[in-house]
DNA sequence: CCATATAGTCAATATGGTTGACTATGTGGG
DNA sequence: CCCACATAGTCAACCATATTGACTATATGG
């Protein structure tokens, strides 16, 4: 039993995933904070990756991201309040708005991507480039076709 | 920019970690639910791995797990209510209680460990045993010595 | 034996999400 | 043409999970 408990504590995959995610998130946010980026957290990345230059509806983001439209609506509001996104009326549908990324949003994205890559690089150094690449590929494969 | 956005969407490490963790958690909980296990969720695993046969104090779990003692206290209460844990007065300190795992708790643990291993096995099959092992080892290494 | 630290609880608050009800607008079939 | 029904988005209520602060009871070292 002791054996079982300690094996859960040390190598339980679920907890490792959780801890790594928190660590990664925290480090990215710290870097962004030191750039003076405010009013944004990583939860906003539920929305951001779905925004493109053609404009997208809140409902569409909600559907694709798998969260409620109310949650997406709130995230968009916050991002608009901080000038990272812009919304325009959808000419094709008076009920809808289209979400676009702003200039400030693009700048923020460049920073976020750079920090993300730096932290990945740091981690890659810890475990070796090759094994790190294997790890990421394995993760992607699992996500690609798991029930 | 499109390139950047889509690269974030598809391979951003933070989101992969988050999604994998949720997927793993959900699957374990589904399995446990189909065993008739109730009143327990994976957040209780913040507490469970620290319980051993010698008994442990709530405060000590909180310290080691890095969460508030209030949060741990609530988790323990729930686990005790559902008979997965037992608490006894600490003979050495009248302020304190010691947390032990119950018989029901041991049975639950066996199931949880089995399901965890099965899901890991399923994932290992998807990416290959060798790469899966590399992935887990890499994750452990990163957790071991990251700031 | 008192000053201070510690174990644990209760309450208030923060955060981040959900579901439900609603308004306004769009759309397809009689 | 228009009505029934679907859809975009908002507002409000609620829920889950954690935090911090204030408190009580007990321990302990100078």
Fold and architecture overview:
The structure is a homodimer of 147-residue chains. In chain A, helix 5 (103-127) packs across helix 6 (129-144). Chain A is globular, with a radius of gyration of 19 Å. The model of chain A has no long low-confidence stretch (mean pLDDT 88). Chain A has six helices and two strands, in the order H-H-H-H-E-E-H-H. The first copy, chain A, is mainly α and 147 residues long. Chain A has helices at 2-11, 13-34, 58-65, 69-81, 103-127, 129-144, and strands at residues 85-89, 97-101. The interface between A and B is large, with 60 and 60 residues. Chain A binds a DNA duplex (30 and 30 nucleotides) through residues 43, 57-59, 67-71, 73-74, 90, 93-97.
What is shown here, in short?
Chain A is mainly alpha-helical and 147 residues long.
Write the layout of secondary structure elements.
2 copies of one chain form a homodimer.
Chain A: H1 2-11, H2 13-34, H3 58-65, H4 69-81, E1 85-89, E2 97-101, H5 103-127, H6 129-144
Antiparallel strand pairs in A: 1-2
Helix pairs in contact in A: 2-5, 3-4, 5-6
The structure holds a DNA duplex (30 and 30 nucleotides).
